[in-house]
Design goal:
The chain is an alpha+beta fold and about 220 residues long. The protein is built from four helices and eight strands; from the N terminus they run αααββββαββββ. The structure holds decanoyl-CoA. It catalyses: (9Z)-octadecenoyl-CoA + H2O = (9Z)-octadecenoate + CoA + H(+); (5Z,8Z,11Z,14Z)-eicosatetraenoyl-CoA + H2O = (5Z,8Z,11Z,14Z)-eicosatetraenoate + CoA + H(+); dodecanoyl-CoA + H2O = dodecanoate + CoA + H(+); tetradecanoyl-CoA + H2O = tetradecanoate + CoA + H(+).
Length: about 220
Amino acid sequence: MSEANDRAVETVDEDPHEGGFRAHAAITTDRGGPRYGEFSEQVRLLMDNARYACPDDELVDELIESLKALNDRLADSRIDEWHSPAGTRIDLPSRGNITLPPYVVTEVNDNGVVAELTFRDFHLGGNNAAHGGHVAVAFDDVGGFASAVAIQHVSRTAYLTVQYRSITPLNTPLRIHAWADRIEGRKVFIKGTLYDGDRLCAEMDALFIKLNPGQA
Ligand SMILES: CCCCCCCCCC(=O)SCCNC(=O)CCNC(=O)[C@H](O)C(C)(C)COP(=O)(O)OP(=O)(O)OC[C@H]1O[C@@H](n2cnc3c(N)ncnc32)[C@H](O)[C@@H]1OP(=O)(O)O
């Protein structure tokens, strides 16, 4: 961590959340400003390019210096997780969270949540296919979304099983669907599918537990 990072971490205030991972602060579309989406896209491109880059020694030296300078500038703007744009910008793919594969929600209703999702170069597993872990990340997030829709409350994943049925391609718009199969008390049983066109890539079977008041 740089000195700037150390300073940023020290500025994190008392944790304002009230159970789960939902902040008191309202979800907004203006944190980070009107160009925050472009910023996120540039970060994603950086991740994509880094995944495939093979820089020579001279370029590595140059890139390290550029990235150090960039990281120092970014670290100076760090705030706590509850107020950062990443994860709260509902107008951007995956709520502006660049750690998630980008998806855009197309339907939210009694049948659950449907989204168009694209794994990118950064999500490479092998031979131009998505890494299975990233497929699980996608299911966890969209599954958690479907659980929240079904119970109108925050829940956490107790287990999540993925059946990998066929190769999940990169850089291809996919259809991800998650829905509440049944609810038993605090237990929300979520199912999900991931399709490339008509081809089933993966299926999810998961349990989310509704959090009690104040539960972390
Ligand atoms: C719109 C925004 C959308 C955002 C989406 C974001 C989604 C991201 C979701 C996540 O990634 S959360 C992070 C990953 N998950 C965790 O870190 C959870 C870690 N585990 C825990 O915190 C607790 O184990 C958990 C909250 C899941 C459950 O603990 P509790 O103490 O609240 O529940 P309890 O142990 O009393 O169990 C309640 C019921 O669930 C059952 N249960 C709990 N864990 C189970 C399990 N693993 N398998 C089967 N059943 C399970 C348990 O048997 C019991 O059944 P009964 O009511 O019938 O007796």
